[in-house]
Design brief:
Length: about 140
Amino acid sequence: MSQAEINRDADDGDDAAVRLMIVEDDALVALGIRLTVEDLGYYVCGIAASEPEAVALAASSHPDLALMDIRLKGTVDGIDTARRLRNEFSLRSVFLSAYTDEQTMARASLTYPLGFVQKPYSAGQLKSALDLALRRLAAPRD
């Protein structure tokens, strides 16, 4: 099944559910994330493997939150993709990545992420990160 078919299949989701997009270059990992978050009750509006795919998906699907890997296909990484999604769509991200070195974390923090989950992760860790991120999104701004 192609990425476009996966995203088309996701378009029939419940409008009341929180809409998540997954940005992950490994299709098998992306499918695992999708299954996990759907089991947790979230709606996945699509999966992107690169910055151009993520921008197109955000523009067409209007997600509430992005689950963002740091390493993506192409020349632009997940940190710069998260920055672009925030600037162009006011879309915030939770990073899911195995890259936790100091330099990477410092760069990621400049995008003001709503969370960071280190791979490999458990469903409980992902649920906690998503719950916290959604509370932060819903909180009144001072």
